[in-house]
């Protein structure tokens, strides 16, 4: 793939540290990479993808960007923030309807994005692009989550950071676990593992919204678009922790997030990292992960995803 301009937007490299309390509890070595430290307005994994996507946008003089996601999409919010930074008009086609004007939805509007609610976002984006193009705008569509072969290069960069950490600290991670919601972050890490570490690590994606089969197919397509020779047979997706569904929650999940926060000082979000970390701990408890090895979890951000309903349930739990 021809190299294009990459912007420097996020605060990278992001730190890695050992979670001593959980390592002691589970008799293994648990590390976390804090990609939620990548920058508060565009926190988490989204900024790494947007560095490449907006590099393409600016290099080719696009003046308008359209993207999609759920009503509380981290990607949509990050896209709106980066678009505002560079003076690009931003349209967000959100799958759902406005219920509470809070969290990411509030931030979307604060950053000046035009918001359209739709039950058919892909078709709506294409229709909007046609309409705006006819009015003389030069329009760029970013797929949900920024997950395509270009955006995924942001996580090839992250894999290089992980290798640098290993070298500097004389350590080797045997596994990397992360939330998987659109596939691009996983694809970038998997490709880095294939290209730079001879496939040494096992990359586990914990799905927050779709089946193992769905993500194996989608991630496989992204990888083949990056490099037709890449072996996609080792894609590993755990779809047992979707729970009530995407951006939905239950009391057991909330209790788990509070327990982790109290014990570690790390706040997991209820849509992505919380579900993924439950999956990660479950794999340790059930000896899917070898306790003699070093295991890395990537905190991909998402703190703004806590809705009023979620906070109300957590308050009730805290007051017990």
Question: How are the secondary structure elements laid out?
Answer:
Elements: E1 16-18, H1 20-26, E2 29-34, H2 46-59, E3 64-70, H3 74-86, E4 89-95, H4 103-110, E5 114-118, H5 121-134, E6 139-141, H6 153-169, E7 175-180, H7 184-196, E8 202-207, H8 212-226, E9 236-238, H9 251-264, H10 273-285, E10 294-299, H11 308-318
Parallel strand pairs: 2-10, 3-4, 3-6, 4-5, 7-8, 7-10, 8-9
Antiparallel strand pairs: 1-2
Helix pairs in contact: 2-3, 2-6, 3-4, 6-7, 7-8, 9-11
How many beta-strand runs?
10
Q: Taking Cα atoms only, what radius of gyration do you get, to the nearest Å?
A: 19 Å
- The secondary-structure element order is EHEHEHEHEHEHEHEHEHHEH
For the record, the CATH architecture of the largest domain stands as 3-Layer(aba) Sandwich
Strand order of the largest sheet: 1-2-10-7-8-9
* Count of DSSP-assigned helices: 11
- Backbone shape: globular
The CATH topology label of the largest domain is Rossmann fold
User: Percent of residues in beta strands?
Assistant: 15-25%
Q: Enumerate the spans where pLDDT stays under 50 for 5 or more consecutive residues.
A: none
Helix content: 40-55%
Q: How many domains, as an integer?
A: 2
What's the mean pLDDT score? 94
What profile does the largest beta sheet have? 6 strands, mixed
